[in-house]
Amino acid sequence: MRRSIITGTGSCLPGKILTNDELSAMVDTSDEWITTRTGIRARHIAADGEYTSHLATTAARRALDAAGTRPQDIDLIVLATSTPDQTFPATAATVQAELGITNTCPVFDLQAVCSGFVYALTTADAFLRSGQATRALVIGAETFSRILDWDDRGTCVLFGDGAGAVVLEAGEGRGDVSDRGILAARIHADGRQRDLLYVDGGPSTTQTTGFLRMKGREVFRHAVTRIAEVMKEVMEDAGVSADDIALFVPHQANIRILEGTAKKIGIPSEKVFITLDRHGNTSAASIPLALDEAVRTGRARPGDLLLLEAMGGGFTWGAALIRL
Ligand code: UT7
Fold it and tell me: pTM for the whole thing?
């Protein structure tokens, strides 16, 4: 059975760090409020002239190095972002050019907000398993600081910038749960909830980029339910139980959501990998950023079964079970 195997991970964070105390000098908030309600202590913010494509290209280079893969051997790039450099062309095209990939492989951006990386992984998996590609770069990259209303304390304290990437390679497996690679992946959407988390601008409507708007409490309520549902789906698809999972690498939105969903599914807190205290919510970049850190620090090792999940604007949500 053809499987999509992660052979390398990489990530990139902007150098500038913005702490809760620094934010407290900008809006009416406090380190105490942000830490207890969200678990976030700091986030990275892109410098002037530092774009989503820059973060994405660096993360991709590091993933290629880790995989021992030459850029020219990549035959698909899927880049998840809601903060592209430009309305078009796709930021993936910039990354392709920056990496020096001249083999004319297909590249595209994918927009599913915070679920973007799970959507991109699922899409690349379908390309690989159908034989339409053999070696993909799957990237999540964002500069959310550019679409934040820095006067809105309800949202500006939550997000940060960054990028993460994986090299995904087709390989043969036995077709059972011992295989390396993506063992199960599911994505969902429900457009009826699009007004709970959105950006109030766009090329067709306002001809401006707009700012992020969110009804936080309602998003929270939906998130816990939807994430738990889709995690159960992928575990059933693959025929595994919570005990089989070595590490839970969730979208890093809110510590209470992560711990709440882990508990619902029966994953102990020591198996929950957390980066949001230092990264904040980096939308599509949060899972691959966390995954790279887990791999590089030895928390995720070859052969480990990982559970990934995310939920975001749309609403969109999804989960994936992967053996490293
Ligand atoms: O990544 C994809 C999706 N996004 C999420 O998953 C986010 C989901 N939602 C959340 O994480 C939480 O709802 C938030 C962290 C956004 C908010 O936490 P909450 O416990 O739901 O607070 P709330 O919005 O109900 O606000 C409670 C109070 C309000 O004051 P009053 O009306 O009770 O007087 C807010 O005005 O906290 C106030 N507040 C703040 N106070 C200090 C809101 N933001 C802040 C702030 N600092 N930054």
Answer: 0.98
